[in-house]
Automatic annotation (TrEMBL):
<feature type="domain" description="SET">
    <location>
        <begin position="1"/>
        <end position="262"/>
    </location>
</feature>
<dbReference type="Pfam" id="PF00856">
    <property type="entry name" value="SET"/>
</dbReference>
<feature type="region of interest" description="Disordered">
    <location>
        <begin position="299"/>
        <end position="328"/>
    </location>
</feature>
<dbReference type="GO" id="GO:0045595">
    <property type="term" value="P:regulation of cell differentiation"/>
</dbReference>
<protein>
    <recommendedName>
        <fullName>Protein-lysine N-trimethyltransferase SMYD5</fullName>
        <ecNumber>2.1.1.359</ecNumber>
        <ecNumber>2.1.1.372</ecNumber>
    </recommendedName>
</protein>
<keyword id="KW-0949">S-adenosyl-L-methionine</keyword>
<dbReference type="GO" id="GO:0140943">
    <property type="term" value="F:histone H4K20 trimethyltransferase activity"/>
</dbReference>
<keyword id="KW-0489">Methyltransferase</keyword>
<keyword id="KW-0963">Cytoplasm</keyword>
<dbReference type="GO" id="GO:0140955">
    <property type="term" value="F:histone H3K36 trimethyltransferase activity"/>
</dbReference>
<dbReference type="GO" id="GO:0008270">
    <property type="term" value="F:zinc ion binding"/>
</dbReference>
<keyword id="KW-0808">Transferase</keyword>
<dbReference type="InterPro" id="IPR001214">
    <property type="entry name" value="SET_dom"/>
</dbReference>
<dbReference type="GO" id="GO:0032259">
    <property type="term" value="P:methylation"/>
</dbReference>
<dbReference type="GO" id="GO:0005737">
    <property type="term" value="C:cytoplasm"/>
</dbReference>
<keyword id="KW-0479">Metal-binding</keyword>
<dbReference type="InterPro" id="IPR046341">
    <property type="entry name" value="SET_dom_sf"/>
</dbReference>
């Protein structure tokens, strides 16, 4: 595997240490997530539903009451809407930041329901149409290179291969806060049983889609290469778009900091299966220590994995165009 960018430790880092916290260059909630009534701050993606409201919607139980409601961090009284288009923000600070950075240009105002408005068309178009509408709605001479067809395709590829998924959930935060409570044994057992049953009800009603979900492009995090045995992981403990990169083990000075582009279940699969997923989604062949140690394994995939993955092509890592190193 030819590598380009990489993130390297300038000092020794201890297991569990937060390596850095980073804001995205750009981020947005997925359109499908919005359509399925997952409510998030338009600027920072913080979940806007209270934990109880979220649990009621996901479980399909309108009268559900959560114990320890004081553990929910959502503050509806602080939420603010854009007066023109009614887009919601978690605070006046987020509303102002959005207005300063982009919303004045993107606010639909009275055209929110107009299917012919260029920005509304952007939500449904194919790449050629998207390019045309993108140019019509947002063209800026200072950013001209991104508006020509080749630059526009590169922009899409950049976000697609380097974007980091963002998930926020008021319910998950409430559950974590409940886990941290010091309770007598009987109360702990009762609370744990309640939470277990709640997740069963949610799985039956809604399935696996529990979070407000979106994607962001992060300057430092996007420099991290993949390893099937990562020494760092990404999380969003603030329930917004702030990315925390934390060490999974001790990292020595000069050592590369790697995350995994695969989830836990995918990392436990065979080398052949992992390579298929990475080729299909990230266009490179992994040569991390785990993959090198398993080179003699047969290139076989179980029927169950075949059904989930599909055939993929591609041989080079998306970042190999640039030769850069970033120290943190």
């Amino acid at each position: 595997m030819l590598q380009g960018k990489g993130l390297f430790a300038k000092r020794s880092i201890k297991k569990g240490e937060t390596i850095f916290i980073e804001r995205p260059l750009v981020s947005a909630q997925f359109l499908w997530n919005t359509l399925y009534k997952y409510k998030a701050c338009e600027y920072c993606l913080r979940a806007l539903e209270t934990a109880e409201g979220n649990a009621r919607r996901l479980s399909g139980i309108p009268g559900l009451s959560l114990p320890h409601p004081e553990l929910c961090r959502v503050r509806p009284e602080q939420h603010q809407a854009c007066p023109q288009c009614q887009v919601m923000y978690c605070s006046s600070e987020c509303r102002q930041a959005a207005a300063d950075q982009y919303h004045q240009a993107l606010c639909l105002g009275p055209s929110e329901e107009d299917p012919d408005h260029p920005i509304n068309k952007l939500k449904d178009g194919q790449l050629a149409l998207l390019h045309s509408l993108f140019t019509e709605a947002l063209y800026d001479d200072r950013l001209g290179r991104w508006f020509v067809p080749e630059g526009f395709r590169s922009l899409f590829a950049l976000v697609g291969t380097n974007g980091q998924g963002i998930g926020t959930s008021s319910l998950s935060q409430w559950v974590h806060a409940c886990d941290a409570l010091e309770l007598p044994a009987q109360q702990r057992e009762h609370l744990d049983s309640f939470i277990d049953q709640l997740y069963k009800d949610i799985e039956k009603e809604t399935g696996d889609f529990l979070n407000c979900e979106g994607s962001g492009l992060f300057l430092l995090q996007s420099s991290c290469n993949h390893s099937c045995i990562p020494n760092a992981e990404v999380s969003f403990p603030d329930n917004n778009f702030l990315l925390h990169l934390s060490a999974l083990c001790d990292i020595n000075q000069g050592e590369e900091i790697c995350i995994s582009y695969l989830d836990c279940c995918q990392r436990d699969r065979s080398r052949h299966s992992r390579h298929k997923i990475l080729r299909e989604n990230y266009l490179f062949v992994c040569s991390c220590p785990k993959c090198v140690s398993q080179m003699d394994e047969l290139d076989v995939t179980s029927e169950e994995e075949e059904e989930e993955e599909g055939v993929a092509e591609g041989e080079t890592e998306g970042d190999e165009m640039e030769d850069e190193m970033t120290d943190v």
